Amino acid sequence: MSKLPRIVVLATGGTIAGSAASAASSAHYQAATVPVTALLDAVPALKSVARLEAEQVAQVDSKDMGFALWARLQARVAFWCAQPDVAGVVVTHGTDTLEETAMLLHLSCAVPVPVVMTAAMRPSTSLSADGPLNLLDAVRVAAHPEARGRGVLVVLNQQIHAARDVVKAHTSAVDAFVSPVGGPLGFVQDELVSFMRAPLRRVERSWPLPAGEWPLVEIVPSYAQPSRIVVDALVAAGAAGLVVAAAGNGSIHEALAAALADAARAGVAVVRSSRTGAGHVSIPALPNPGAGLFVSAGDLNPYKARALLLLALARDPRLAADPGRLQQCFAQC
């Protein structure tokens, strides 16, 4: 019998580690209460898939995710991926900000070792809790030879997604996560791990995280009759970048567009995304006061676009005043 692969599970809390007073409750519970060791003990089948090592990186509700925890998690992922006998890393995470952390790891963990994120929509104490199967499937994917070199992956509800593409699209359903543009990469069914396609948007080298203070990058929505107050206030506060959650194909109300154009001329990076949830924001920009000054987020939603913009400006602050080069970052990642 061959030796089982060594898989490291890094836990950060979330609903998968949540508990409720009643097993009948799946909506009212306390996230991040169950330690990772208990999560693993609840899935005996894991012992037949891999030799597991667990580390409790954090124990938080992912709505409270922050830069310091991002940096700590990325450092632990990088550390374990550098160990020659580690076949894969699994990250348990809350669902609220999973897509943002997934984007961050996609950019900052360009390693051949499989890095697989997973989560749950129901707490561990719930009837029909989805966490145990998601965890088992994530370990199966991390241990699978075909998972190598595919970038950071997300495994939920028996589906395998690219971390760059996956988004949360429902408040409570177990099939809340989708990849709206390209669809999932594959699926897991019991012992079968099947990849149907490979992700094409993969970074060749890991992007460094800020060593000190992170740049101020915020999201500004466009809607019927917005004022320019928020944009002007953010520029005055020293914003390095702004992501617009625009309507439709990146359409921005004329009053907001004028404020954003002034921000861009002042050296603030302005990225147009869409609030619709799917689709690609066209290049060049639609006619508005900021034409030629704004960057398209492509098919990234505002939250993923913000994660990319944070790291891009941290790596090279000069990109804020160079929309052409910044556009290349979004086109390549």
UniProtKB/TrEMBL annotation:
Alphabetic keyword roster: Hydrolase, Signal
Record-annotated L-asparaginase N-terminal domain positions: 6-198
Coiled-coil positions: none
Domain Asparaginase/glutaminase C-terminal: 217-316
Entry annotation: catalytic residues: T15, T95
Lineage: superkingdom: Bacteria
UniProt signal peptide: 1-23
Family, as annotated: Belongs to the asparaginase 1 family.
Name of this protein: L-asparaginase
Organism: Cupriavidus malaysiensis
